[in-house]
Specification:
This protein has 264 residues and is mostly helical. It has helices spanning 2-5, 14-20, 25-42, 46-60, 71-88, 109-122, 132-143, 151-166, 175-187, 193-202, 209-220; strands at residues 106-107, 250-255, 258-263. A hairpin with a 2-residue loop joins strand 2 and strand 3 (258-263). One of its GO terms (biological process) is cell division.
Length: 264
């Protein structure tokens, strides 16, 4: 899995472009917050959330988004969550019903489906991505000597993963590295070098010690977010493909009392 996870990461310059302002960080922040609000509303599993953010980051790293069209980011967020839910959840609501709360825009099912298709194509149809949730069970069990960790420890590890996924600082690490660092952080109050050496030696999944250590330092400073975070933003992503794969064409959304048709 570690060998394959690199095939499901954003472009190499994605984090640098977010930090430099070349890509609008607010677009990602608003999309993530919207996805989180819908995630909490429906009580989806943590894998669905992490997977939807993986789709979002990979997509944003590959496309130059048009500016000044706020409705498109919300549409992208809906599509990413819808695709993730279809991959991971047993009970899947209609994509139009994912638009919870009081969104600024309401999109029709056809518009969401077209955006889903665009995301599929942009990601090369590679949807079964690896996230920290993929690896956390393995690393937690190793830290607990192959015994089942406590419910409290599992819950804390998931909180840390979700918090890390929401921000951008952890984009420089692979999912396996984040999971390994989270498992260490949860297992020890204040990790010591000898503890880390021992832990690294019991991992059969190969991760680089220096990178896990760097990730662990960030995790130690990470403030846990509450499970009831409600900051949701109406954001939307305007699809625009330099490769000509964009087939959204004409997308419809409702804003206020009227229905507006937007030509792309």
């Amino acid at each position: 899995m570690v060998e394959k996870e690199k095939d499901f990461l954003p472009e190499n310059d994605y984090l640098m472009r977010l930090r430099s302002g070349d890509l609008d960080l607010n677009v990602r922040t608003e999309a993530v917050n919207w996805i989180w609000k819908a995630h909490v509303h429906y009580g989806f599993g943590e894998m669905s959330f992490c997977l939807s953010i993986n789709y979002l980051d990979r997509f944003l790293s590959s496309y130059e988004l048009p500016r000044g069209k706020s409705w498109i980011v919300q549409l992208l967020a809906v599509a990413c969550l819808s695709l993730a839910v279809k991959m991971e959840e047993i009970t899947v609501p209609l994509s139009v019903d994912l638009q919870v709360g009081e969104p600024k825009y309401l999109f029709e099912g056809k518009a969401i489906q077209k955006m889903e298709l665009l995301v599929w194509r942009t990601l090369g149809w590679r949807m079964k991505a690896y996230t920290p949730c993929t690896f956390i069970d393995y690393f937690m069990r190793k830290m607990y000597l192959d015994e089942i960790p406590s419910i409290r420890s599992v819950s804390r590890s998931i909180q840390l993963i979700i918090s890390a996924t929401k921000g951008i600082d952890f984009l420089e690490f692979r999912p396996s590295e984040i999971a390994a660092a989270v498992a260490m952080s949860v297992s020890w109050e204040r990790p010591q070098a000898k503890d880390i050496d021992k832990a690294m030696s019991c991992y059969s999944i190969q991760v680089q010690k220096d990178r896990v250590m760097k990730c662990l330092e960030l995790i130690q400073d990470l403030t846990l977010v509450t499970a009831t975070t409600t900051a949701g933003f109406a954001v939307a992503y305007a699809p625009q493909s330099p490769n000509g794969v964009l087939e959204v064409g004409c997308l419809s959304y409702k804003s206020g009392e009227g229905t507006t048709t937007v030509g792309v």
